[in-house]
Design brief:
heterodimer, A: 109 residues, mainly beta, 6-stranded mixed β-sheet, 5-stranded antiparallel β-sheet, 58% strand, globular, B: mainly beta
Amino acid sequence: GQQVMQIPQYQHVQEGEDFTTYCNSSTTLSNIQWYKQRPGGHPVFLIQLVKSGEVKKQKRLTFQFGEAKKNSSLHITATQTTDVGTYFCAGTGANNLFFGTGTRLTVIP
Amino acid sequence: DSGVTQTPKHLITATGQRVTLRCSPRSGDLSVYWYQQSLDQGLQFLIHYYNGEERAKGNILERFSAQQFPDLHSELNLSSLELGDSALYFCASSFRGSGDYEQYFGPGTRLTVT
């Protein structure tokens, strides 16, 4: 079945440092979505990437979709304490989303 | 506030019991998805309904079942509960049923089986 893996599982960074999480799929994806889940909260949609090689930016967040549409990354520049949470990627397939394993980000003030 | 409501917020029950979790999607959304999130785990897809019909099934146990009603709210039924069923259960809604629309998550129901 379709699998979406994320690395790293955990990441601790000093406030102001950059952070990157990587998402890899065993199959080609139609598109990929990214979600953020704050501690104690529910996942919140961040963005969707559709095209091969697509790059999108949201303020300090940069999202990339690989050329082969099998991997993606989320990069946060100059992390802030408000960036704390778990970041999930999710690939589309068979009428549902396959969520990655998530990367839990801790930001040390 | 995502516009998706889930009840109850918390549920504590004993092994062997049966519970029903309820979800109301955002106004206008036809799809409802159910997910299970155990402690420090990812989101495990359980089942997807679109406009009253089952669209996709994930790793949902036979002890679990779901349905979506004509008013589009959905219920997830968990029976013969085991300790390992303790988890956070999220429902999410989206407009279409193809899986490539953003999903709006409810606040979740935390189930504790003792």
